Amino acid sequence: MTKDFSGKKGDPKQKYFHESVFHPHYDGRFTDRTLKMDERRPHLYAMIQAYLSTMADLGAETWLMHGTLMGWWWNGKILPWDSDIDVQVTVDTLSFLFNYYQLYVFHYNHPDFEEGKNYMLEINPNYINSDKWDYLNGIDARWIDMQTGIFIDITAVRVNETAKALGALDMYCKDRHKYNSSDIFPLRDSFFEDTPAKIPFEYTWVLEEEYTKESLTRTEWERHAFNETSLEWEPIKGDRYPSGKPGGPVAPSSRKKFDPTHVRDRMQRIRNGQSAVTL
Question: pLDDT of 56-92, one tens digit each?
């Protein structure tokens, strides 16, 4: 692609990463269009598998966070409406990756893509600036699909020594999220998209704090309903909406909450580190 569709020209000069001019979850240096939901799914699937496998091979500790962790909570998969992936690392891990793999292109063979996939690891040099007010550089690194422009956002957790001395939340990211170190560590081993992955120790609290308790039980989000038998998010048909058309709000009377006792054993197998394919 010869034309750059990133938002570089319109962004402040101190901002390192420039999302595309047409969608914030695409890198405009590598694409000029978005992918439809069904088209996007295999690329996201391959991308997280490649990232997790590569970081494990490099000995770089990383874990799922934000919407990706929410997908893990429900069924160990990427939420169908998600268009990016979120992970975290420590600053020490980020420093290691910057020193040895900055702008390195990793080739990943995948059965769904005949020619394989290329991913570029790009570290924001501003990661060394730990100032929480450096909000323009809240993303510390990205793992970028060079074919489609989709990416994994990588943020680093940092220790706030002052808060630690006061007994307050002692870890933070530059994207303004705060945690106790005991919320994150020690990390738990699990699986995500049939690939070994790590998750925060207090994953329930982390998700409730960011998305509310309702997010762990409500079975209708983003025009999808959770099937408690298949453990899959399925599109809601048009007649479930007041307007009769997909895209409108779900009627309040049609919303229900998930009763985890119905599938507790099956869900727990995922959370305890067993592959979803064994369910």
Answer: 999 999 999 999 999 999 999 999 999 999 999 999 9
Query: How does strand 151-159 pair with strand 85-90?
Result: parallel
Tokens of 110: 């995948």
CA distance 201 to 218: 23
The pLDDT tens digits of the residues spanning 262-275 come to: 444 545 655 565 54
User: Any idea how long the chain is?
Assistant: 279
Give Cα 105 to chain centroid, integer Å: 20
Joined together, the tokens standing for residue 152 give 């994994």
Check the CA dihedral 42-47-52-57 and report its sign. Answer: positive
Q: Report the candidate in 186, 211, 180, 189 with the shortest Cα–Cα distance to residue 201.
A: 186
- pTM recorded for the entire structure: 0.87
User: Taking a C-beta distance cutoff of 8 angstroms, is the pair 82, 44 a contact?
Assistant: yes
Contact (CB, 8 A) for 75 and 232: yes
C-alpha angle 127-185-56 in degrees, rounded to nearest 5 = 65
State both tokens at 211.
Answer: 């998305």
Question: Dihedral angle at the C-alpha atoms of 163, 166, 169, 172, nearest 10 degrees?
Answer: 10
DSSP string, 75-96: HSS--TT--SEEEEEEHHHHHH
Task: Kindly state the DSSP code that residue 178 receives in the 8-state scheme.
Answer: E
Contact present, 91 and 158 (Cβ < 8 Å):
yes
Peptide bond into 249 cis (omega under 30): no
Phi then psi for residue 13, to 5 deg, are: -60, -30
Instruction: Decide if 19 contacts 150 (C-beta within 8 A).
Output: no
